[in-house]
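Following up on my earlier thread - several people asked me to post the actual chain instead of describing it. Fair enough. Here it is, all 64 residues.
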Amino acid sequence: MGSGPIKHALSLACSVADEIGSYGLYLNADPAALAFYQKFGFVLLQSDQSPEPWPMFIPLEAIG
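Reply from S.P.:
Thanks for posting it. Predicted structure:
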């Protein structure tokens, strides 16, 4: 997976955040992709990590 789609999603989320009242982005990550998402600032949420996928979050203020 390339970084283009995630960069676009993060940019889009920031541009519409005020309109939709968003604070951040949540995703369910494949365990094999954790390092990929962490490069963009996503953090692993503390919860039961089984079964897969694992929940991750990034606040919009951490983007860009």
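The CA atoms of residues 16 and 22 lie 8 Å apart. That should answer part of your original question.
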